[in-house]
Every structure is written in structure tokens, then in C-alpha cells.
Design brief:
Oligomer: single chain
Helix content: under 10%
Distance between the termini: 59 Å
Number of strands: 19
Order of helices and strands: EEEEEEEEEEEEEEEEEEE
Shape: elongated
């Protein structure tokens, strides 16, 4: 590991002394046959370079593994828990979306119990595999997810469907029939920032974040009348 300004001394561990307030750029380099797996502590992400401001005693860990070596894995409960989509954010966090029935254990003491027949989850894991946050979409009937992606700030976007009513973050969303939804979740907490529904026979097929427009684009199919909300009240297919 190298530092700018210089001062990091690497033996069994790397350490150095710097003036309070110093901004340090740390750079890792993997040996031949190994690869850099990510940071933890004051640095986060999977890029091989990061900046740290020394305000006090500061700890950073860099993880390496043999190229192609297993780094970490997590089991989420038992069948019939089903992961539907996986995405990563710029910091290297891994976002997993899926459905569960019964009780699901996400590790680090986080457990969910199904409120009815099937519910949806979105779990965010750090580059080293620790659970950062866990969010649920609970349906009065069944609730599920179809796609997940992230933006440049690490916020997560998810599409899915529910039947009758769905509870998200303590708020109930009602529909007279099957409805689909798209939601934005906060990168740090997993709390829902906004959620929109489309009531009717729709099928979400794709979800893409467009950095140049800072916009999320969802695509799918619909039959007959579908209410997408303002400003598009109804569309007929």
C-alpha cells in the first residue's frame, strides 16, 4: 500500500503518523495471481484508491484474494426464498432483491417473518459481505420484485407487483386489483424515498438508470387500461 503524502510503513500491518486534518490518498496494488477485493473502515468500495481525512486515530482495511478465489457468500433462509435480481453500486456494495415465504435469515441478526403468502425483500451487503440494510415490501396478498438497479450515489431502484395492498416503510399502498410499482431506496438506510404504482395488467420487463439525465427508465408491457398516475392518467393497449 502506498500513501500520498508519503508516510505509510508496511510491515505485518501498515501504519503511519500524520498531522490532524491531513488528506491522505491510499493506493493498493495486488501481487501477481491475486486481486484487490475491497476496503472497509474509513475507506469503502472496490476501487484500488481512496482518500481519508485524518481527524483522529483512523483505521482502514484492504482485502485481497487469489484471482477467482471465493471472497464471501450468504445464505438467505431456506426454500422457497428466491433471489430475483442482483446489482452493485459505485462503492462496491451488493444489492439483492427477491421474495421470501415463512422466515428468512439475512445474517448479522436480521430476520424477517412473512406476513402472508409471499413478500419481497431488498438487502444491501458491503464489499466484505456485512449486511448494511434490509427493506421489505409486504403484501396483503402476495408482493414480489422483478428488477433492481442503482444510481451513481448508490440509491437502489426496484420494480415489482402486489395484490390488493402493500405496506412499505409503515405506509400502506392500496390497489383494487393487481398493481405494479417502482420505488427508490436511500443508499445509506434503505428507506423508501418515493414509490409509484401502476394499477392494471402490467408486466415490468426492464429497469435502467441513465446517468446523463439522472433519470430511471422502466419498460414493460400492459393490457387494456392502466393507470400510471400523474401526468399520464390512462393508456390503452
Amino acid at each position: 500500500m502506498r500513501s500520498v503524502p508519503e508516510g505509510i510503513d508496511c510491515g505485518t500491518i501498515c501504519s503511519g503518523e500524520f498531522e490532524r486534518g491531513t488528506v491522505i490518498t491510499l493506493t493498493t496494488s495486488a501481487m501477481q495471481g491475486s486481486s484487490f477485493a475491497g476496503w472497509s473502515g474509513a475507506c469503502q468500495g472496490i476501487a484500488n484508491q481512496c482518500q481519508v481525512t485524518v481527524d483522529d486515530d483512523t483505521a482502514v482495511a484492504a482485502f485481497f484474494g487469489l484471482a477467482g478465489e471465493h471472497v464471501w457468500s450468504r445464505q438467505v433462509g431456506n426454500n422457497p426464498n428466491v433471489p430475483i435480481g442482483v446489482s452493485t453500486d459505485p462503492a462496491g456494495n451488493v444489492i439483492v432483491a427477491g421474495t421470501y415465504t415463512g422466515t428468512a435469515d439475512f445474517g448479522d441478526g436480521a430476520r424477517l417473518s412473512d406476513s402472508n403468502s409471499m413478500d419481497a425483500f431488498i438487502a444491501n451487503y458491503s464489499p466484505s459481505g456485512e449486511l448494511r440494510w434490509l427493506s421489505t415490501f409486504r403484501g396483503a396478498g402476495a408482493a414480489g420484485v422483478t428488477r433492481v438497479t442503482t444510481d451513481e450515489e448508490g440509491n437502489a431502484y426496484v420494480t415489482g407487483s402486489f395484490n390488493g395492498a402493500m405496506v412499505v416503510g409503515g405506509k400502506t399502498h392500496n390497489a383494487s386489483e393487481v398493481a405494479n410499482f417502482i420505488a427508490k431506496l436511500d443508499a445509506t438506510t434503505g428507506e423508501v424515498i418515493w414509490l409509484h404504482t401502476a394499477e392494471g395488467a402490467t408486466t415490468p420487463m426492464g429497469l435502467v438508470y441513465v446517468p446523463s439525465a439522472d433519470a430511471i427508465v422502466a419498460a414493460g408491457t400492459f393490457v387494456e387500461d392502466v393507470d400510471f398516475g400523474y401526468p399520464f392518467d390512462e393508456s390503452r393497449g
